[in-house]
Amino acid sequence: MTEHELPAWCEPLLTRVRSARTEDFTRVRTPANGGRDSAVLVLLGEQPEHGLDVLILQRAATLRTHAGQPAFPGGARDPEDEDAAATALREAHEEVGLDPTSVTVLAQLPRLWIPVSDFVVTPVLAWWHRPHPVHSREPAEVAHVARLPIAELVDPANRVRVRHPSGWIGPAFQSRGMLVWGFTAGVLATLLEMAGWARPWPQDRILDLPPTSPPPGSAPGIEEADEADEADELTRPTTPS
To answer: Which of 48, 111, 131, 167 is 20 to 30 Å apart from 229, CA to CA?
Structure first.
């Protein structure tokens, strides 16, 4: 397989993603205007020892917001960014040293509004056709970088739901010492369903998040405004039943 050939698993996922709607990911309608444009990179790769995986970073425990929370690489759009893909790739390079030429962008998913911070986030789905070592370039912001195997994420033993102190309950994944929840888990859960990789799991398994956890609608990996923690409206990722 050359760099420009996509693996067999890509086409079924892309067929479904091409018709994806905002409603597949969240119950919150994205406004036609306004919001701070941003993007995250949903980067899928493969390794011989565990097959398909996704790149996830863990925020530093000392950050004011999203301390210790796993997230996709990403951030706010810069004026010179051509599109959401350019934003996601630039941010991934700045955060973990990702070489943009090692990535094939597959699709831009629906724009998702985060009322808590007024970000409009575009998840960018991509194939890591030439994987290479990555690491935190800013330890004060990114504590850890990991490639989480899809096989572990879809394992029913690793799937839970989490309850935020606000009362919000949403999907989560346990893998390699990380608890992935909130915006990141919502996007992952929907993509796993769309790809046909998800497996039935006991949805009555619920973990309580500590009171210091950030609001579930805030997008980890994206710098927040000061008022984010006081917002009363949350993004609620939907998980197909």
So the answer is: 111
Under DSSP, is residue 3 helix (H, G, I), strand (E, B) or coil? coil
Single out the residue of 26, 54, 92, 24 nearest to residue 178, CA to CA: 54
What's the chain's length in residues? 241
- Distance, CA of 94 to CA of 71 (rounded, Å): 15
Q: What is the pLDDT along the chain (241 residues), one digit of tens a residue?
A: 445 689 999 999 999 999 999 999 988 888 877 788 999 999 999 999 999 999 999 876 544 445 567 899 999 999 999 999 999 999 999 999 999 999 999 999 999 988 877 889 999 999 999 999 999 988 777 888 999 999 999 999 999 999 988 888 999 999 998 999 988 999 999 999 999 999 999 999 999 987 666 666 555 555 433 223 322 233 344 443 3
Task: Give dist(CA 192, CA 150) in Å, integer.
Answer: 9
